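User: Predict the structure for this protein chain, please.
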Amino acid sequence: MTLSDSVPFVMARRPSEVPKSVIAQLNRGERETANLAEGLAMDLVKLAGNAVPHAAKAVKQAVGGDASYVAKMKTIGETLRDELGLDGVLERLADHPADKARSWQAYAIAAEPGLSIGRRLELIRLLADDHHFSVREWAWLALRPRVIEELDLAIGLLTDWTEDDSANVRRYATEVTRPRGVWCSHIPALKEEPQRGLPLLEPLKTDGSKYVQDSVANWLNDASKSRPDWVLELTSRWLKEGNGSPTARICRRATRSL
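Assistant: Here is the predicted structure, written as structure tokens:
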């Protein structure tokens, strides 16, 4: 069941406003979250137990009661990989109705030992292009540490993603490499040397998708916190080149903190 197929619901703005009936559906894995408030209101451990019953005990033992939301998502994904193996997780959760359940695949992919960064990106591509916003976010959050480990190689591989037909895939290339990012560790190398990200930024400076434009602008805004000179020089050059309204919008948003 997808969100559009579910019973009428109240669009809550805070976790405390989410109806108990909606939380029950989310915990059973019968529907997707409508927004962040619903995601924060649900019980991830209960969802994992319903999605993979035989792993319920292991998940409950692994997840600490005071762990952060991101830590819980990571722990559950890694625990499911331990219990089912990577192939088992991908087979079990690929088409699961719950967005959070599908998202655990990303952490299983990130946790699998011995995979090259290229293979991890291949496996995570479907999640990067998932129809649900939450899955797309967890896809880059989960793989970001692996990208940082092999940054230049990852940037080289992600350059091909900037030419993909899907705006979701194109956006992933910049979102996973943002120098600062949200809910995640920073990338010191790109804070100090943002020019290393140009292979991803240059192809997207004229992208027609606002979803992609916002990611490119946020990437540059991150960089402007430590290298404002570089960001101003780059955006000035882009504007002088006369690349059109998408570029102008990116440059305006990229320099909003300067």
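The chain has 15 helices and no strands.
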